[in-house]
Design a protein that fits this description.
The complex is a heterodimer of chains A (327) and B (322).
Chain A lengths: L5 E12 L2 H6 L5 E13 L4 E5 L6 H8 L7 E6 L2 E2 L5 H8 L2 E4 L3 H4 L6 H11 L6 H14 L18 H13 L5 E5 L7 H16 L3 E6 L2 H7 L2 E6 L2 E7 H6 L4 H9 L40 H4 L5 E4 L2 E3 L5
Parallel strand pairs in A: 3-8, 3-9, 6-7, 7-8
Antiparallel strand pairs in A: 1-2, 1-4, 4-5, 9-10, 10-12, 11-12
Helix pairs in contact in A: 5-6, 5-7, 6-7, 7-8
Chain B lengths: L4 E11 L5 E12 L4 E5 L6 H9 L6 E9 L2 E2 L5 H4 L7 E4 L3 H4 L6 H11 L5 H14 L16 H12 L6 E5 L7 H18 L2 E6 L2 H7 L2 E6 L2 E7 H6 L4 H8 L39 H5 L5 E2 L5 E2 L10
Parallel strand pairs in B: 3-8, 3-9, 6-7, 7-8
Antiparallel strand pairs in B: 1-2, 1-4, 4-5, 9-10, 10-12, 11-12
The chains are: A alpha/beta (327), B alpha/beta (322).
């Protein structure tokens, strides 16, 4: 097994909640949002890990912490063996090139005034790479070929509004690839796209992965994660509650939350209509974390011990961990 | 039996700023029986939302519509606003994707439902407040939350509040336009369960407008697949999945990942839908179709019957499954 490219260890991200004027004067205790509350996972070259969970589970905060777009309260984010959490802005710059991000909405992430050529070239200029303009043009064309926008001549001088949603997302990916990163963080890369083109963008990510790129994909779509990721980490209220090889997590889930999520994912075949375990209520806010197992207030199988004891994320099957007292 | 809702030969055109015209909906027909759930599916720009807005009489001023929209046999499109207004929200209501946009941010959800009840002269005063509480309870919101403002509710709760408001006059038909698209999977399951209950318990007829085929497969009886402003295929949801007649239907399913079928490759449909601001020759799906032949280039396939309410707009005679 190859060395981890990214190693996240006991990562904690907390946000302070504004107390407001009255709260400050009355010296009410400060409260915090426990966005990420101590999670660990690893990512190897050529591997795709999907962080899956509902809004507010901490998956986007995790991605932003990995990218050092937000500050980390505790824990380590080791990239190529080096902890990023203590590195200053200046030290981050050469690292950023190797660690790129693709956002959800290609309609917003691309500057509407830039032609494809400029959008893909810009990162090279920012990082002072690519030398001469001839060399930069060569790299831009190569990046467009890699995202299957070929021949590049057809796309170089177009503006984003002249492209379809799928093509825009490909341009955004090209602008990340032009720096030749080794790790790509993709935050819901296809959720804004039409169903008919999603598969194409996901297959592109899959082939980039086969060529050695490591991909951390943030998604709420379990079907996509199951089909395209190598490993799935399911998050709930700031913690990873289950983690393992994608197929095993989906076929043999070990955590009641994962089981419930999988049971309500709509299937294509109308004959597979079934009730599913629809959990009542919504994820509690990350300010008032429930005692014991954080999932116990909504868990269909919780017992008394779940209110008190916080389960550790531990191996339930070979290479497959879950945080539940009952499995 | 007269259908509850019948749409015949509906066309919608939008005037474009450059003087051109965009033919967004082309000869669309639908029927809906009481208590029936119909899924209207397709990619963005296929005309499904425009069809829904035309049925509600809520098209923007730049649009013009032709055809017939019969509500219990009575044409509500012919006389424009005057003929649809008595029925809008009373017999037929709509909920939109971003519930936040449909709710007034500076009024509590209870006050907004009371306003809807009083505006349509269902009940007033204290009785209206009681009725608003009942409506909220019926969509799973505790009545005491009537005093909340939209921003104090989660996305799922706002969508429930929007559904409660749409139900205030006890309409016979509810159109839900991408009601779960922005929601998490568990909240989506809750909303789908709610819509399912409203149909089975109260006989509400539902038109579910969505790009999400699995959602239609799970909730609807019949489906209408739209492409480039036209109906590509219609049938029961079982027929659409197991025995598609139109290659587009089959390819849409094949592009959708499924938890029960992880080994099957997921294939995107190459290309993009055609622009609708210019005339098209032949089948609009031809450039993206894997079964196209010479005839598809020149002759536009008409929607034709395959028996038992099944229709497809394709020159192929056999099923296109597998």
């Amino acid at each position: 097994m190859s060395e981890a490219l990214l190693e996240v260890e006991d990562l904690v991200v907390h946000y302070p909640v504004s107390r407001g004027l009255v709260g400050t004067v009355a010296r009410r205790p400060r409260s915090t949002v426990h966005a990420v509350d101590g999670i660990s996972f690893r990512l190897r070259p050529g591997e795709m890990v999907a962080l899956v969970g509902e809004s507010g589970c901490g998956k986007t905060s995790t991605a932003q912490a990995v990218m050092r777009l937000i500050d980390v309260d505790a824990g380590a984010v080791r990239f190529e063996g080096r902890d990023l959490t203590g590195v200053g802005t200046r030290g981050l710059r050469p690292l950023r090139r190797r660690l790129q991000m693709v956002y959800q909405d290609p309609y917003e992430s691309l500057d509407p005034r830039l032609r494809v050529r400029q959008a893909v070239e810009e990162p090279l200029l920012i990082h002072r790479l690519g030398g001469t303009s001839v060399e930069r043009e060569r790299r831009v064309r190569e990046a467009l070929e890699r995202v299957e926008l070929s021949p590049p001549d057809l796309f170089l001088d177009r503006y984003p509004h002249e492209l379809s949603g799928g093509q825009r997302q490909r341009v955004a990916i090209a602008a990340a690839l032009v720096l030749e990163p080794v790790l790509l963080v993709a935050d819901e890369p296809v959720s804004m796209l039409d169903v008919s083109v999603r598969a194409g963008v996901l297959s592109l990510l899959e082939s980039l992965k086969r060529a050695g790129l490591a991909i951390l994909m943030i998604t709420h779509d379990l079907s996509t994660a199951a089909r395209f990721a190598d490993r799935i980490a399911v998050m709930y209220l700031g913690l990873i509650v289950e983690e393992g090889p994608a197929e095993r997590v989906v076929r043999d889930p070990q955590h009641p939350y994962t089981r419930a999520l999988l049971s309500v994912v709509p299937r294509r075949d109308p004959r597979e209509r079934h009730q599913g375990t629809v959990l009542r209520g919504e994820t509690p806010d990350a300010v008032n974390i429930p005692s014991g197992c954080r999932f116990h207030p909504r868990c269909p199988v919780a017992v008394n011990a779940c209110r008190v004891d916080e389960p550790a994320l531990e191996a339930k099957r070979p290479d497959h961990r879950a945080a539940c007292l009952l499995t | 039996m007269t259908p509850l809702l019948e749409v015949e030969g509906l066309h919608v055109w939008f005037d474009l700023a450059d003087g051109g015209e965009l033919h967004a909906v082309q000869d669309v027909g639908l029927t809906l029986q009481p208590g029936e759930r119909l899924g209207l599916v397709g990619e963005s720009g296929c005309g499904k939302t425009t069809t829904a807005l035309a049925i509600m009489g809520l098209l923007p001023p730049s649009a013009s519509a032709a055809g017939r929209i019969l509500l219990e046999g009575k044409d509500v499109l012919a006389g424009g606003e005057a003929t649809i207004r008595p029925h809008r929200w009373v017999d037929i209501a709509i909920v939109f994707q971003g519930a936040m946009n449909a709710l007034n941010p500076v009024r509590t959800i209870g006050a907004q439902i009371v306003e809807a009840l009083e505006l349509h002269e269902v009940v007033r005063g204290a009785a209206a407040r009681d009725r608003a509480g009942d409506l909220l309870e019926s969509v799973g919101i505790p009545a005491r939350r009537a005093e909340r403002f939209p921003h104090e509710l989660s996305g799922g709760m706002r969508q429930r509040a929007a559904i409660a408001m749409a139900l205030s006059c006890e309409p016979k038909v509810l159109i839900a336009d991408e009601p779960t698209t922005a929601l998490d999977v568990m909240v989506q399951a809750q909303i789908l369960e709610l819509l399912d209950g409203l149909c089975s318990d109260f006989g509400l007829a539902l038109i579910l407008v969505t790009h999400d085929l699995p959602v239609v497969a799970q909730l609807c009886d019949r489906g209408v697949v739209m492409y480039a402003g036209r109906i590509a295929e219609r049938g029961t949801v079982e027929e659409l999945y197991h025995e598609p007649h139109h290659p587009y239907t089959r390819l849409l399913f094949a592009a959708t990942p499924d938890l029960d079928d992880l080994d099957q490759p997921i294939v995107s449909i190459p290309g993009a839908p055609p622009r609708l601001d210019r005339p098209l020759e032949g089948c609009p799906f031809r450039p993206r179709c894997d079964r196209a032949f010479e005839r598809c280039e020149t002759e536009r396939p008409r929607l034709r019957g395959f028996g038992d309410g099944r229709e497809a707009a394709c020159h192929l005679d056999q099923l296109v499954s597998v």
